[in-house]
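SEQUENCE-TO-STRUCTURE ENTRY
===========================
What this section holds: a protein sequence and its matching fold, both as plain text.
Question of interest: how does this chain fold, as expressed in backbone structure tokens?
***
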Amino acid sequence: MYGTVCRFQLKPGMEAQLAKVTGEFEAVTIMGERAEIVYQMDNNPNEYIMVVVFDSEEAYKRNAASPDQDVRYRMFREILAAEPEWNDGQIVYSRMSERV
């Protein structure tokens, strides 16, 4: 598996827009994407960490290069205070629980 970890900050007052944008993204099927998780940091509520998991590096790069993903990224970028920080890499360990 392969993925990215993104650190970002919203423009002031954009929390509702983040919910709207991520809600719109939920309706999109991205080949090879397994999970997307967004954290809001306790020590700085305006800072977020997003983790996105793909089946493979190839699937990740195919999505990153697609025109549709560029449109989604531009929507996301409009609500951010600055360029996000992206960190890509191979996933060497993961564990997902079926428990709720």
User: Anything to note?
Assistant: The chain has one domain: 2-90. Strands lie at 2-9, 33-40, 47-54, 85-90.
